[in-house]
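User: My notes are a mess, but here's the protein and adenosine-5'-triphosphate's SMILES. Can you give me a structure?
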Amino acid sequence: MKKIVEIKNLRKTFCKGDICVANSLNLDLIEGEIFTILGTSGSGKTTFLRMLAGLEKPDSGEISIDQEKVFSNNINLEPNKRKVAIVFQNYALLPHINVASNILFGSNASKEKLEVILEKTKLKGHEKKYPHELSGGQQQRVALARAIINKPKILLLDEPLSNIDTELRNILRTELKEMIREFNITALFITHDKEDAFFLSDRIAIMHGGDILQVGTAKELYNNPKTLYCASFLGKITKIDENSYIRPENIKISENGQIEGIVKENIFYGNFNEITIFANGQNLIVNSSDENLKVGDIVKLSFEDRIMKF
Ligand SMILES: Nc1ncnc2c1ncn2[C@@H]1O[C@H](COP(=O)(O)OP(=O)(O)OP(=O)(O)O)[C@@H](O)[C@H]1O
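Assistant: No problem, the inputs look usable. Here's the predicted complex:
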């Protein structure tokens, strides 16, 4: 598997060292994968993406893209020499020029290439329209087409799905994933949204306070988080003793359960119920399909294997 991006000991601090946004980061991206940096606001995602693109200068470390060193002690290639392209949040389309001109903006791609890309992004017939005449999905495709026309080695996507309402967002992210697969390009997303990360990514890195805490597939991270922070960031957990935790779906209410508890609350969420049960001297959160349990009912619980220890 070919490494398209190699990052070694990348460091960046702001405000005379007060805020460390990249704390000796190490990361490799593999050709063709969709990779996501997932983190809360202020965790350092944008700075990381900007350093990769050459828009922010790291303090130290190394970045290679497609086997070429683009940043090190004595190298700092300009953004346009780095074989990267960015799709910005809100797409950053130029409002006063049409679709074709937006796609060709800053590119010396041929008319033939434009035709191919219009075809592939399903924008044929829309090339003379202006951005405000396009749907959200079409605008996203123009932004993608513009990013991809120069055949970058890596496509960087800066929270492209934020500020979009849920219904459209589901459509856009499906389309986005299909397009990226269609172009067979390596992509790096940054997002704070766990669901987007799970939907889009082959692998995910969890970022927090300028550190990459863990890298893995969504399943690996969810089922085997290395730290309490990663565990709770990716989904609800409930404490079962001093240093053991479990996810609500891994506690079962059953006749044969070994632990007795009393129902404190039962909340209906449509496809499951979230039940708070007081057992072993504490409140446990349990996901169940049992809509009929009432406050005060006595139940028996058992824990499935997936106990996490931190
Ligand atoms: N140019 C700058 N000067 C000083 N501090 C900065 C600068 N850029 C970012 N920071 C600080 O660095 C930290 C990380 O910022 P960054 O934008 O990389 O985080 P983020 O994870 O992308 O957050 P968000 O999701 O809110 O964009 C924040 O505390 C931010 O205030």
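Residues 276 and 285 are 5 Å apart (CA to CA).
User: Great, I'll file this with my notes.
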